[in-house]
Design a protein that fits this description.
The complex is a heterodimer of chains A (about 750) and B (about 80).
Chain A (H helix, E strand, L loop, with lengths): L8 H18 L2 E6 L14 H6 L1 H14 L7 E3 L6 E8 L8 E10 L3 H5 L2 H4 L7 H13 L2 E2 L1 H42 L8 H11 L6 E9 L2 E8 L10 E3 L3 H9 L3 E4 L8 H4 L8 E9 L2 E10 L7 H44 L5 H15 L6 E6 L5 E7 L5 H14 L10 E3 L6 E9 L2 E10 L2 H44 L6 H20 L4 H12 L5 H5 L6 H14 L12 H14 L4 H7 L7 H26 L10 H16 L3 H11 L4 H8 L3 H15 L4 H13 L1
Parallel strand pairs in A: 4-5
Antiparallel strand pairs in A: 1-4, 2-3, 3-4, 6-7, 6-11, 7-8, 9-10, 10-11, 12-13, 12-16, 14-15, 15-16
Chain B lengths: L3 H17 L4 E3 H8 L3 H13 L3 E4 L6 E4 L3 E7 L5
Antiparallel strand pairs in B: 1-3, 2-3
Helix pairs in contact in B: 1-3, 2-3
Classes of the chains: A alpha+beta (about 750), B alpha+beta (about 80).
């Protein structure tokens, strides 16, 4: 059987043709086998080739035994292993540098005058047990028919077979080179179409490309894992496993010098070079040559592909250049892949960050912003472990810190260090971030948060490696920037409130001299608005603004509008309040501002502060939302209750112990309602929150139940109480509390 | 297959939810209904937050309940005491 896998068919045909020609020329039977004795072509001989085709397996056993004895032969030799005097020419067909080699077998030669001796030799007539009778007899016939060869003829035949071996060597080398290149190109092609979503594509790709390369005995793939620090993450070759995890630094040894130069490098005859110790210590038996291919992208070195050879490798020039080019391309491919991976990781976080910016823009509390920065930074880094925000809350040296993943006292010590470095001078930093290695928390990325022309806070996030720090620094920078914007908004708002309140107070004080009654009335109206907020009618922020409008209500709205960035809304409220007061009809399709409406109600109460209960029925309703009027009536009722109780206390100190706040009064009313209508404990809790003006959503959050459940409770409460809405329910509670 | 960016977005939404409702105690099922996301992805996001110590997790699987772990807050750290 002829081996068909080792040779490309065209090459096989050429070799066969050549072999047949030389068989005719030398009148020898010629066979070509591989190093295991398998025939690579059909035996060539006009008469006896058929014997070997029919008995190929027996021949293979015989030839392999012979080849085992011929290891390392460089020239054509004569062998007579079967019967002394019956000789074969055996010529090696070298394919160096490949480990594969072929052998040409040419025979048989019987020297002149030795035929009789050969025929009478015992081996000629005694069949070996492993040889079939057919084959043995055919061989005997062949010997009988073979002519004796003179020494001159033997020399001629030997030369010709040697030339045949050389010719075949050239043909096969060329063919193998081509086949090798084809195989490598196929491997490269396969690699480049490997599914990008595979678990470890880079390692797999590297393995495929490097394992089929002739360039070295061992290959390695190192990635940058810190500034100037590289770690071997993958190695290929029998002695390579111990290289995995090995660390080297820029400028250190062969590998370190290669990454520093950022160019392909090659060192040969390095057996005695001390830089080889890096490999010897990792179990590599011997180092003759080291080749390095830095993985670069845009002047940045991401890693290194390297190969180590134990001995000199005679790779033909073109083949060598191809391997070099291919591995360089591989490095470029890996660099692209790593860049893509890095960008992908960042993109995965930028999208959520944009979503986050929409959600946090309305936060108006500095501590809430700090909580978000700490928690969100942990969401954004690859391996979250610790995060801290240090914020200078005042100019008297006090700082506030919010931290996660940091234990006291290390957290506080670090916070003080950060505050000293960034917040003491509070100058604007030169860079948007800093890397700090001298901390108890691995590596810290520190982002100064600047607003109002000073560094007022610092976001610091722990990262496990510098590499990770470099990869996520941009995304954290974006978060810190977002923090700056939101903190500035909080700061501006505080400043605005502070300035507005100060100016409003000054304007208010200015009327005390010429109109004490007006001064007192406006102060009372402001107080009522604040009480309305405490009661739950409006938020504190709304109350602050409406309160300021009350204090400045005598002022010309246009004059107030002339204050840059101040009092714009207050001016509108005052204008609306005056229109309501003048009983001006509101334009169709329009309504007065809620602030103006509340001012009108607050002034109505302030003007009759000596008899609140009467004013309940006399509250202005023209131009004012009916719901707001109802709400204010309830507020006045509760306020009256409170004042009544306080009066009792003032008039009779002995009963002070029984005095209760408005909440106490509400509580009494609530208890009475619960008792009267048989409300369950949960219904009582819900009603209590309804009375405190909580919305269904707020009640759900407070009681840890869904809004749907709140609605169910309310329906049951209304049914039991016989009321149709929450306003009636609240009124019932207050009626009970004052009744 | 849910995109990684969607999981991170959900992580952030969950974080904000618990920051805004610091006393809330929720299961992955409950929170997924509130946020209109699948229970499976919500559970994945919540478990990541628990790994980061942003949330505290009690129990396993569908019965696991999550609550917010407030960060360590120190107000009025006196800078003058720094050595």
């Amino acid at each position: 059987m002829i081996e068909t896998t080792g040779l490309i068919s065209d090459i096989r045909d050429v070799c066969q043709e050549l072999q047949d020609t030389y068989a005719q020329l030398t009148d020898l039977l010629i066979m070509v086998t591989d190093h295991e004795g398998r025939m690579m072509t059909a035996p060539s001989h006009p008469g006896h080739a058929i014997i070997f085709e029919q008995h190929a397996e027996e021949m293979q056993r015989f030839m392999q035994q012979e080849i085992n004895k011929l290891q390392g032969i460089k020239n054509t030799l004569l062998s007579d292993q079967w019967v002394p005097g019956i000789r074969w020419l055996i010529a090696p067909v070298s394919l160096e540098p490949l480990s594969t080699s072929f052998f040409i077998w040419a025979g048989i030669l019987i020297q002149t005058g030795t035929r009789q001796a050969v025929l009478s030799h015992p081996n000629f007539s005694q069949k070996d047990v492993e040889v079939s009778t057919d084959f043995f007899e055919a061989m005997q016939r062949w010997v009988h028919e073979t002519q004796e060869t003179t020494p001159e003829q033997e020399i001629f035949k030997r030369e010709k077979i040697t030339r045949l071996a050389r010719a075949m060597s050239l043909i096969l080398k060329s063919s193998y080179k081509e086949k090798r290149l084809t195989d490598r190109l196929v491997a490269l092609s396969d690699t480049l179409v490997t599914d990008q979503s595979a678990a470890h594509p880079i390692e797999e790709i590297t393995r495929i490309v490097l394992s089929s390369s002739d360039l070295a005995d061992i290959f390695g793939f190192a990635l940058r894992t810190g500034t100037g620090k590289y770690t071997v993450i993958n190695s290929i070759g029998t002695a390579a496993p111990e290289l995995n995890g090995a660390v080297f630094h820029e400028g250190e040894g062969f590998l370190g010098q290669a990454v520093l130069s950022a160019q392909p490098s090659r060192w040969t005859n390095v057996e005695r070079d001390p830089r080889s110790n890096f490999f010897l210590q990792k179990g590599v038996p011997q180092v003759h040559e080291v080749q390095c291919f830095p993985i670069r992208y845009d002047d940045e070195v991401y890693g290194l592909l390297f190969g180590v050879s134990y001995k000199e490798r005679s790779i033909p020039g073109l083949h060598f250049q191809f391997e070099e080019t291919m591995i360089s391309l591989m490095g470029w491919y890996i660099a692209n892949h790593l860049t893509y991976e890095k960008m992908e990781k960042q993109l995965q976080r930028f999208k959520p960050l944009i979503e986050l910016s929409r959600m946090i823009v309305s936060v108006q509390d500095a501590q809430r912003v700090m909580f978000m920065l700490v928690d969100m930074s942990l969401n954004l880094v690859w391996n979250p472990s610790a995060s801290i925000v240090v914020h200078r809350t005042s100019d008297d040296g006090k700082i506030q810190m919010v931290a996660r993943g940091m234990q006291s006292p290390n957290g506080e010590t670090y916070a003080k260090d950060v505050a000293r470095r960034y917040l003491e001078n509070a100058e604007q930093p030169a860079a948007s971030y800093y890397i700090n290695h001298s901390t108890p928390f691995e590596i810290m990325l520190e982002y100064p948060i600047v607003y109002a022309n000073r560094t007022r806070a610092v976001l610091a996030v722990a990262v496990s490696t510098e590499q990770e720090g470099e990869e996520c620094r941009e995304i954290l920078s974006a978060l810190a920037m977002m923090g700056s914007v939101v903190m500035k908004s909080v700061y501006d708002r505080q400043q605005y409130m502070s300035n507005s309140n100060r100016f409003a107070q000054i304007l208010h004080e200015s009327i005390r001299e010429w109109n004490v009654a007006l001064y007192q009335l406006t102060a009372d109206a402001q107080r009522i608005v604040q009480e309305f907020a405490t009661w739950g009618g409006i938020t504190k922020d709304e109350a602050d603004m409406i309160g300021r409008a009350c204090l400045m209500s005598y002022s010309d709205p246009n004059m107030l509008r002339s204050f840059p960035h101040l009092f714009q809304q207050e001016a509108e409220m005052i204008e609306d309040y005056k229109h309501i007061q003048d009983n001006q009809a509101v334009a169709a399709g329009k309504s007065y501002s809620r602030g103006g409406q509340i001012m009108a109600l607050a002034f109505a109460i302030a003007a009759s502060a000596d008899d609140d209960m009467r004013v309940v029925n006399d509250l202005p309703i023209s131009g004012i939302d009916q719901g707001l009027v109802s709400q204010f009536r309830l507020f006045v009722l509760s306020r009256h209750t409170l004042e009544t109780e306080i009066n009792l206390v003032e008039e009779a100190p002995a009963v002070a112990a029984r005095s209760v706040s408005s909440e106490g009064a509400e509580g009494r009313g609530l208890e009475a309602i619960v008792k009267q209508f048989g409300l369950s404990p949960r219904e009582k809790e819900v009603l209590e929150l309804v009375v405190k003006a909580s919305s269904n959503k707020e009640i759900a959050a407070t009681l840890f139940i869904s809004e749907h459940t709140v609605k169910n409770h309310l329906t049951n409460i209304f049914n039991k109480m016989g009321v149709s809405d929450r306003a009636q329910a609240i009124a019932a509670v207050f009626n009970k509390s004052i009744g | 297959m849910v995109a990684e960016s969607d999981v991170i977005t959900l992580q952030m939404e969950c974080t904000l939810f618990f920051e805004n409702n610091p006393y809330a105690i929720e299961t992955s099922s409950g929170l997924s209904k509130r946020l209109g996301r699948s229970q499976q992805v919500t559970e994945r996001a919540l478990n990541r937050l628990a790994d980061m110590s942003i949330l505290e997790k009690n129990g396993d699987g569908l019965r696991a309940i999550y609550r917010y772990r407030a960060p360590y807050v120190q107000t009025e750290v006196d800078l003058s005491a720094y050595d």
